[in-house]
Amino acid sequence: MIKTIIDKLYKYNCLEKEEIIYLLKNLDEKSREYLINKAYSTRLKSYGKTVFLRGLIEVTNFCTKTCLYCGIRAENTNADRYRLTKEEIISSCENGYNLGYKTFVLQGGEDPFFTDEFLVELITEIKYKFPECAVTLSLGEKSYESYKKLYDAGADRYLLRHETANPKLYSSLHPKMSFENRITCLKNLKKIGYQVGAGFLIGLPNQTIEDLAMDLLFLKNLKPHMVGIGPFIPQKDTPLRNEKGGDSYTTITLLSIIRLLLPDVLLPATTALGTIDSTGREKAFKAGANVIMPNLSPFECRAKYSLYDGKVFTDNESAEEKRKIEEKIKNAGFEPVMVRGDNITWKRI
Length: 349
What we know:
By secondary structure, this protein is of the alpha/beta class. The protein has one domain: Aldolase class I (TIM Barrel, Alpha-Beta Barrel). It has helices at residues 2-12, 17-26, 29-47, 86-99, 116-129, 144-153, 167-173, 179-192, 209-222, 248-261, 271-276, 280-286, 318-331, and strands at residues 50-53, 55-60, 103-108, 134-138, 157-159, 195-198, 201-202, 226-227, 230-231, 291-292, 335-337. Helix 5 links the parallel strand 3 (103-108) and strand 4 (134-138). Helix 3 packs across helix 10 (248-261). The protein is globular and about 55 Å long.
């Protein structure tokens, strides 16, 4: 039965909710290995053995939101707050460009300091200085009009995890936030023409296998260009500090399923996975992942961007981190590449 379900997923890139639940509940080591091999085969067809490197710049750890799992939530009075100036962000891009990066990922909390005007000016300057490079934004929920301004200024991609497709669970973890608005934002981003990234956390308190099945079906229906998933890791200054975190085993299993559901998707091996499992990202590449995002943030800011505890690679300068990551990728049998690495189905409108 399990093999039949995996073969269906491999051949047709779809499953019913009941089949996903059955698969997740009954997967043994042998069938999991079969699943991972099918995901690896699919990855080879779509992207070969390449792993795209993106330069991550964490532009601010100020945030107006109070998500219960996040270390930079507004109510965390212990957070050592910072925000980068436009000059510091451009300098980080310049550093990355000199190291060979062709994508810059600007990530941060929902910080009102970063107005549309500020971001349009910033994106315009990055595109002027580095015209062959892609700009990815991950700055939270905005209006359709704001997203459109940033796209017109030259932003290529936008990452906005849906976090969980269960509206009740979403509400319990995101005070004063709207699940419906989150989904509207993702739909608006697709409508505008961005390469859109969604994704979810694994191992959240009260999360069930049925919830994970809902997440997978949500992604299948949304058809994002990128999917970022990672384990929930408790952070010491949040209400969920004493909760059990997610695990590497489940995360890698779900990466395999996502690769098979969405064969052309860009699929990061996340820092969170590397944090809980020293070889997690190498395992992820073999399960279908094909993106990694080394840090280009100013060295003194990296530990301050503490979404969760124990984050790896905060002690390495950008060049050293890149060298170590490339070495790990090669040792795992893959090829690190520094091209833009767009989703193979996407063209700018």
